[in-house]
């Protein structure tokens, strides 16, 4: 099966969307693979890699822009094969949804669990005899 990129380059290489997509997608991938290259250097480097969630935000922004651009492109252009709009138009919203789902499961869940742990630690503190010492949670 042929890839969408190959088909697009084969039949509509002159489309402005191709250049825009290639440029932005390449920049995002350079940042993403730089992160993974640094992360592979071990724990002494990994502690400085705080920007992983921002890569996902960058990917979300990329597909949001592609979605907006594709709406304007396919509504205002002519001469392109109709099949391209049916194949290419759903791509940005689909990828946006998948990255948003990943983002919410990965980073919002982590924040919620961290808040829950703080709450549980404050509520469950006891003295040496096992009696509650009545510390109120900061989150309540």
Give a brief outline of the structure.
This protein is an all-alpha fold and 140 residues long.
Number of domains: 1
**Terminal Cα span:** 56 Å
User: What sort of overall outline do the alpha carbons produce when their principal axes are compared?
Assistant: elongated
C-alpha-based Rg, rounded: 23 Å
The count of strands amounts to 0
Write the element-wise H/E pattern from the N-terminal end onward: HHHHHH
Overall mean pLDDT: 77
Oligomerization: single chain
Overview of the molecule:
The protein is mainly α and 140 residues long. It has one domain (4-123). Helices cover 73% and strands 0% of the residues. The chain has helices at residues 4-12, 16-39, 43-46, 52-76, 82-88, 91-123. The N and C termini lie far apart (56 Å).
């Amino acid at each position: 099966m042929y890839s969408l990129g190959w088909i697009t380059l084969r039949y509509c290489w002159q489309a402005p969307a191709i250049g825009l997509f290639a440029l932005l997608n390449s920049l995002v991938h350079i940042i993403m693979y730089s992160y993974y290259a640094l992360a592979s250097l071990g724990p002494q480097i990994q502690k400085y890699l705080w920007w992983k969630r921002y890569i996902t935000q960058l990917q979300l922004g990329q597909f949001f822009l592609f979605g907006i651009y594709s709406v304007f492109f396919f509504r205002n252009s002519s001469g392109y094969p109709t099949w391209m709009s049916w194949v290419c138009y759903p791509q940005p919203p689909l990828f946006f949804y998948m990255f948003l789902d990943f983002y919410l499961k990965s980073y919002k869940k982590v924040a919620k669990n961290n808040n829950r742990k703080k709450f549980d630690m404050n509520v469950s503190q006891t003295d040496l005899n096992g009696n509650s010492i009545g510390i109120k949670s900061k989150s309540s």
